[in-house]
Amino acid sequence: MSKGSRPHTRADAVFETLRDRIVHLDYPPGTMLAEKDLCEEFRISRTPLREAIRKLEGMRLITVAPRFGTYVSAVDIQDVRASFEVKSRLEQLAGELAARNISEEQLGRLEELLNEMTALHKAPEHRQMISIDSRFHAIIYEAAQNQILTEILGNLHSICARLWTTSLTERIPIKDVVRQLRDIHKALKNHEVEKTGKLMEQHVRYFIDSIKSQLL
Which pLDDT score, from 0 to 100, does residue 175 have? Predict the structure, then answer.
């Protein structure tokens, strides 16, 4: 646990598992989430489960309909585009903060992910690619050392990654993502504050442009 962050609770762990299942389409849009079944699966009471459900509802990943149940929400392109717009500005800030604070250990972890990503480039597997991209961003958020920013960007990244999984999988060339993240890593390694921020924003803008040109 990083300095200043709150303890990781059981509700957090359940939230992260359900979020990832939704993002990666293990739970496609329309899937009903039965409270009783989930409590049994995770061996938890209704209280932490409902806390996780509230967080997912706040992210618009699920819809809670009283007396009807809880369902995985459809992907709303307009909502996702709006999320990307906010994310692009906050990613710039995260990049600038990370360039000031990033450690050699964190740079090493980013390098490992880049190597993993390069191997995928030879035999594309988009689910793994999305997972690596998410972990890459998570390390940058960690390096930024701002817990509020980390939580906001983590939620936005999940919303945006869901669209990548659902609609953009075959439209986003892996080689483009690899090149962008390598440039970001280099700027971080050199502690280039302004350049890292711009590269982070451009990385998100790339996805926004893909949405505009191909889906809207």
Answer: 84
Pair of tokens at residue 66:
């009283």
3 state SS of 32: strand
The answer to whether the beta carbons of residues 30 and 75 sit under 8 Å apart is no
CA-closest candidate to residue 215, choices 169, 151, 176: 169
| Of the candidates 109, 104, 133, 91, the residue with the CA atom closest to the CA atom of residue 191 | 104
pTM for this structure? 0.81
Whole-number Å distance between alpha carbons of 170 and 115: 22
The span from the CA of 61 to the CA of 24, in Å, is 12
Confidence of residue 40 (pLDDT cuts 50, 70, 90): very high
Contact, 149 vs 141, CB < 8 A? Answer: yes
DSSP code per residue over 51-112: HHHHHHHHTTSEEEETTTEEEEPPP-HHHHHHHHHHHHHHHHHHHHHHHHH--HHHHHHHHH
Instruction: Name 54's Cβ contacts closer than 8 Å, sequence gap at least 6.
Output: none
